[in-house]
Amino acid sequence: MTAKTILKIQDLTVSFFANKKLLPAVDGISFELKEGEILGIVGESGSGKSVTSLAVMGLIPMPPGKIEKGEILFEGKDLLTYSEKEMRKIRGNQISMIFQEPMTSLNPLFTIGDQIVEALRLHTKMPKAEAKLKAIELLKLVGIPRSEAIVNEYPHQLSGGMRQRVMIAMAMACNPRILIADEPTTALDVTIQAQILDLMKNLNEQTNTSIILITHDLGVVAEICDRVLVMYCGQIVEHGDVHTILKEPKHPYTKGLLKSVPDLLGKKDRLYSIPGNVPRPGSIKQGCPFAPRCDERIAHCLDVLPSLYAMESAGHEVRCFLHEQEGGVRSNVGMAP
User: In this structure, is residue 179 part of a structural domain?
Assistant: First the structure.
């Protein structure tokens, strides 16, 4: 039985004003999220991953930001038509987000317990005493020891890994349908990273919460994701299930990201590095945005932007002209995920 689509993004374009010009940070992306699925979004800094998540949460600052076009359909209803008051009922209740740095998200003046209680009472009208017991239960759920004492402590008294667990507890407080995790393990050591990923996987299995995991680390994606979107310069350049993307990457950018992952068994003296940097939004006026950094480019790449080519594997799509020659189905050019 096919899982129901809970979130559908269609032709979303988000731009920001700079020097009196609108520069696209997210440029016409489309994808779906199924119930109970873990979807990874990967790419370098500046590729549009976080802007996509902020758009879903209704947190794009306007100005300088502007959602130029598109739809964000949550259970069939377009969130872009909601008022701020309506979005506050959705945000933290049905769609929650874990931010990259918990110290900037937790209020240093309030105890851990007070902050979880506030989230619970805002959406559920739960009595304060009951909400505090629920807060302790949530801290235990995310693996925090001596939870009864931790609820009375302040963020600065906890380690980075503990603060990230608190953020996950807050995000899961109202049993959201969708959890967006923006680089949730970046600032943590490897052991704590593994624990946080296990925690998110367990929560997904126990509560059937759909997760969007935003990261630049393909190792993290391999660990827990079902499907992957690879983003570059505000566009989706490759999309498919995690096994296909990791074993048979087709876009030169995806191949470069995979070659950049350290191999403990390999004998390479130096790690591979994709030459150059992600271009500034709006600086590529024609052609494929990755062409200046690509060692497989052809002349056509510099002049025309490729559409998404459907590959032979179901659901595998690649934005690259090379796949006219490698089995890409030309009649399906332009298909959106």
Answer: yes
Question: What are the backbone dihedrals phi and psi of residue 264, each rounded to the nearest 5 degrees, phi first?
Answer: -65, -25
Spatial distance between the Cα atoms of 204 and 207, rounded to a whole number of angstroms: 6
Residue 268 in this model has a pLDDT that exceeds 70: no
pTM: 0.87
Kindly report, residue by residue over 230-239, the tens digit of the pLDDT.
999 999 999 9
Element (H, E) at 215: strand 210-215
Domain at 28, CATH number: 3.40.50.300
Q: Among 50, 29, 42, 39, which Cα is nearest to 5's?
A: 39
Work out the number of other CB atoms within 10 angstroms of the CB of residue 303: 10
Determine the structural domain holding residue 166 and report its residue range: 5-332
Query: Is 337 within the bounds of a domain?
Result: no
Q: Has residue 78 been placed in a domain? A: yes
Is 315 within a domain? yes
Which residues touch 43 (CB under 8 Å, ≥6 apart)? 49, 216, 230, 231, 232, 257
> What's the domain count of the chain?
1
Question: 137-168, pLDDT tens digit by residue?
Answer: 889 888 888 899 999 999 999 888 888 888 88
